[in-house]
Every structure is written in C-alpha cells, then in structure tokens.
Write a structure and sequence with these properties.
The structure is a single chain. The chain is α+β, with helices and mostly antiparallel strands. It has one domain. 51% of the residues lie in helices and 15% in strands. The chain has 8 helices and 4 strands. The strands form 2 sheets. Strands 1-2 form a two-stranded antiparallel ribbon. A two-stranded antiparallel ribbon has the order 3-4. A hairpin with a 4-residue loop joins β1 (11-15) and β2. It is elongated, with a radius of gyration of 17 Å. The two termini are 19 Å apart.
C-alpha cells in the first residue's frame, strides 16, 4: 500500500427507514481540524469502537448541504420507560441517530465515512482480510498530513 492510495473520496449510504440515499463529501483539512478540536484524544476510540453517537456528528458534518437540509428540526413524540409521553424537537446529527438501525446499516455508514477520509473499500477489504494492518494505514495517514 502506498501513500497515494489514501485519497479522500465522496461516498453515499441509504437509510432503510427513509429509503433516501445520502451523500457525503470528501473530508478536508478543515474537517480533520474540527474533529481534532471536537473530540480530542477520544477520536481514535470513537472510530475503534464504532461509536455511532459520535460518528453521526462527523457523518452529518460531511453530508452535502442539500442532504443536511433533510434533517431540519422535527417535533417527535417520545414515550419514556414509565410510559409518559412527551414531545421533543430533534434535528441534525441527533435526528440522524434516530434513523440509523441495525448492524448492517451501521457497517455501511461507517464504510462510507471511511471512504471520505481516504480509506477506500479496497483498503477496508485488505484490512479485514489481514493483508494490511491498522498500523500500516495509520502510518500512511500520518505521512499524508505532513507538509511535502
């Protein structure tokens, strides 16, 4: 695997509950800076544990504007554990989280996110099959961030 293999790409995923395909733009240096400031040292663990609560914030940030607009605040009725009904308004990444369901959907969304940061499906498959290690991917990503 070469440094040139790490190329951020636009990607997309479909949510089963809406039937809509959402499009992610490629991750920029500004996005990387936002992630570092927003999540700090926890960022690695968020990706490692596939923390959809936090990943949904990154996913929402990387959505094309026209797709982000589909997550405008909506009034939702919630029934808590005691059976009490209340209304709440959710939008953005929080609304996105209410629409993601099932392991397959989480995996597909995470794969799309990985493509936007430069880890292509081919690299993901090589990692899953053991052809390349996480350390090799990290090494190339760190080289990509160094000024040439």
């Amino acid at each position: 695997m070469e440094l040139t293999d790490i190329i951020p790409q636009p990607s997309s995923f479909t949510l089963r509950r809406t039937g809509i395909t959402y499009h992610l733009r490629e991750c920029t240096v500004e996005d990387e800076s936002w992630m570092a400031k927003t999540f700090g040292d926890k960022l690695d663990m968020i990706f490692r544990t596939n923390d959809m609560g936090e990943l949904s914030r990154i996913i929402f940030r990387l959505m094309r504007v026209e797709d982000q607009q589909k997550f405008s605040p909506q009034k939702l009725t919630i029934v808590n554990e005691e059976g009490e009904t209340s209304e709440t308004v959710l939008g953005g990444a929080k609304l996105l989280r209410t629409l993601i369901s099932g392991v397959n959907e989480k995996v597909e969304i995470t794969r799309s996110l990985m493509e936007t940061i430069g880890i292509s499906r081919a690299i993901q498959e090589k990692f899953e099959s053991g052809e390349i290690t996480e350390e090799e991917i990290r090494k190339l990503q760190s080289l990509k961030k160094k000024p040439q």
